[in-house]
Amino acid sequence: RQEQYRALRAVDPVTKDGREINLQMNAGLLVDLPHLNESGASGIGLFRTELQFMIASTMPKAEEQEAFYRNVLKHAGGRPVTFRTLDIGGDKVVPYFRAAEEENPALGWRAIRLSLDRPGLLRTQLRAMLRAAAGNDLRLMLPMVTEVSELKEVRDLLQKEIQRQSKLGEQLPKKLQFGAMLEVPALLWQLDELMAEVDFVSVGSNDLFQFAMAVDRGNARVSDRFDTLGRPFLRILRDIVRAGERNDTSVTLCGEMASKPISAMALLGIGFRSVSMSPAAIGPVKSMLLSLDAGKLESLLMPALDDLKPTVSIRRILTDFAAENG
Ligand code: PEP
Ligand code: MG
């Protein structure tokens, strides 16, 4: 199997009916980077910058952050890297950054909320990214966005950092793309405003599922209770894909869902053309999509999602489809 997947490394990810799919990998540390070549991923769709902070015993200094990002870009060798700004708080604990105890940490002071309340921390990180990507492409995205106005606040800070760099005569990134993670359900009713504000959107299905279904992602008692391949969640994801098409905004999904061939298949069936996953999943997912007739699956799945009196689960429809179509 491993050998088989390795052989697929250089094969373009195109479905049987000719849809080109962008397969990227998730990463967070330098040890992840060799997987880029091994897996044949086209880039890093999610770089979790908080990992550098989580493994350190003290806050990484500005220069350390910059050197780290520079190193990541160097290893990526021109393939796109999407850096996510700090996503700490919630399930991601940074020992030296102690906030008050929270009763609902997942809903608490975390990610972009914390960054906006500690603009010094965010500006240091933005500056480190701008400097590391001088002369190159920089893609950055914000975690846990709830309102589009938060993005505007970050953009203002980013603009200040860009001006500062220019004033100092420093080289800037050649191209800068700005994106948001879609993890908070409130954004589902701001899709058009959101997409007008960003260059790309990436669905964090782990958190979006947790918040949409009101199940703690870390609580084994409830985390498997509802199906990510059930109608409610797939309808949500389909709405996001449609909004992306309507607004001509690129949409990726970078949660765990993309790593399982059956759910990746469902994602392609509802119209996703770009996914980012753990490196080990690239081979199996590519192998699945090479033999997938995405159009055929789509014409089966779309009406099934709209079925008002369903008798079969979507998961069942998917596994039957997979069995019948190899
Ligand atoms: C997600 O929420 O799906 C996601 C990709 O981010 P993380 O798992 O780091 O919260
Ligand atoms: Mg998340």
Automatic annotation (TrEMBL):
Predominant subcellular localization, coarse grouping: cytoplasm
Localization (cell): Cytoplasm
Molecular function terms from GO: kinase activity; metal ion binding; phosphoenolpyruvate-protein phosphotransferase activity
Residue stretches in coiled coil: none
Superkingdom of source: Bacteria
Cellular component terms per the entry's GO annotation: cytoplasm
Keyword Cytoplasm: yes
GO biological process: phosphoenolpyruvate-dependent sugar phosphotransferase system
Entry keywords, A to Z: Cytoplasm, Kinase, Magnesium, Metal-binding, Phosphotransferase system, Pyruvate, Sugar transport, Transferase, Transport
Keyword Transferase: yes
Similarity annotation: Belongs to the PEP-utilizing enzyme family.
Protein name, per record: phosphoenolpyruvate--protein phosphotransferase
Originating organism: Shinella zoogloeoides (Crabtreella saccharophila)
Lineage of source species: Bacteria, Pseudomonadati, Pseudomonadota, Alphaproteobacteria, Hyphomicrobiales
First and last residues shown, out of full length: 427 to 752 of 755
